[in-house]
Design brief:
Among the domains are: 152 residues, ATP-grasp fold, B domain (D-amino Acid Aminotransferase, Chain A, domain 1), CATH 3.30.470.20; 90 residues, ATP-grasp fold, B domain (D-amino Acid Aminotransferase, Chain A, domain 1). It contains eight helices and 16 strands. The strands form four sheets. The protein has a six-stranded antiparallel beta sheet, with no helix packed on it. A five-stranded antiparallel beta sheet has the order 12-11-10-13-14. The chain has a three-stranded antiparallel beta sheet with strand order 2-3-4, with no helix packed on it. The two termini are 52 Å apart. 29% of the residues lie in helices and 24% in strands. By secondary structure, the protein is of the alpha+beta class. The longest helix is centred in the C-terminal third of the chain and has 31 residues. Its EC number is 2.7.4.24.
Length: 354
């Protein structure tokens, strides 16, 4: 986005601005974003800034251990997050402890159906300036909040890119989002973000962890991807705001869109009554570990021979539980995989010879 050109035009023509342009420079720097959030009393993850700037050597103290880093005296045990200070750089890394296998999850701007990949590399980056922050456990979801003025906020949840890196998309190829109801405290946070950054139309990211909500990123001018209700509300609010500014003589009142309350009233023989529409329950047996099953069809004679060896034809089914029985299944599987790999090598050689 040609921000410098937009600022120059604004100074030349003095138009009515929906979003403050000067604040866009702060939004492009994660250090400034976190500073403003902290000044406004908005909760954010514990963090430290590593500035690799020769002019500020006191802000470039990094001590890396196997399962932690110390940044300017602040210790961050793994897992922790490493973010470039430039908000335009989306290469965010999450480092895992050795007890969880080590390595790192590397997040990036979505490419096709991927938003992150796992890497065995466990060492932090040695060039560039970064923000190191505490990893927040969020049950695999991120909350995206979109404001249109300080009194309106729309929220959606998506699968966290840190989970497995695969983007969930619908039949139209759009990323799947789930509607979210914000708490009163989260609505207050949305108002604070909107006012602090002077952005009428503003998007930011919330992490819900340990019973609290933390702001981890502010994106500035952002729109919801797929919600007609949001666009209707946005049009009303922005139209109202612009008309009040450009035509004050009309004395247009403020009107904040709200969803009409849909009360389920149905007629009955005893008069009108409220209808119970549904009961939603999530139930899990408390003292059993969910089984990790994989079902498949097998046609190889070796599996049929194993089936016959252990008397499977007598009852029409067979359960193998003893270690030596499971070892037989594993040996057959490994043998077949080795044979398959050899066949693929032979085919490749034939193609090269031809």
């Amino acid at each position: 986005f040609p921000l410098d050109k937009a600022v120059a035009y604004s100074k030349l023509r003095n138009p009515f601005l929906i979003n403050d342009l000067a604040m866009q420079y702060y939004i492009q720097d994660r250090r400034e974003v976190y500073r403003i959030l902290q000044e406004e009393g908005i909760d954010l993850p514990r963090y430290a800034v590593l500035n690799r700037d020769p002019a500020r050597p006191e802000e470039c103290n990094l001590i890396e251990g196997e399962d932690q880093v110390e940044v300017n005296g602040a210790v961050f045990p793994k897992p922790f997050v490493e973010k470039p200070v430039s908000a335009e750089d989306h290469n965010v890394y999450i480092y895992y402890p050795s007890s969880a296998g080590g390595g790192s999850q590397r997040l990036f701007r979505k490419i096709g159906s991927r938003s992150s990949v796992y890497s065995p590399e466990s060492s932090v980056r040695k060039t560039g300036s970064y923000i190191y922050e505490e990893f927040m456990p969020t049950d695999g979801t991120d909350v995206k909040v979109y404001t249109v003025g300080p009194d309106y906020a729309h929220a959606e949840a998506r699968k966290s890119p840190a989970l497995d890196g695969k983007v969930e998309r619908d039949s139209e190829g759009k990323e799947i989002r789930y509607p979210v109801m914000l708490t009163a405290m989260e609505k207050l946070v949305a108002r604070k973000v909107c006012v602090a950054f002077k952005q009428t139309v503003c998007g930011f990211d919330l992490l819900r962890a340990n019973g609290h909500s933390f702001v981890c990123d502010v994106n500035g001018f952002s729109f919801v991807k797929n919600s007609m209700k949001y666009y209707d509300d946005c049009a009303k609010i922005l139209g109202n705001t612009i008309m009040r500014e450009l035509a004050p003589q009309f004395q247009i009142p403020w009107s904040i869109p709200t969803e009409a309350e849909d009360i389920p009233i149905v007629p009955t023989t005893s008069g009108t009554m409220m209808e119970l529409r549904c009961v939603i329950a999530i139930i899990r047996h408390g003292d059993r570990t969910p089984k990790q099953k994989m079902k498949m069809e097998v046609k190889h004679p070796r599996f049929f021979a194993l089936f016959e060896k252990h008397g499977g034809y007598k009852t029409g089914k067979l359960k193998l539980k003893r270690p030596e029985q499971l070892q037989e299944v594993l040996d057959i599987t490994r043998l077949l995989l080795a044979e398959l790999e050899k066949e693929q090598v032979v085919r490749s050689r034939r193609r090269l010879e031809n």
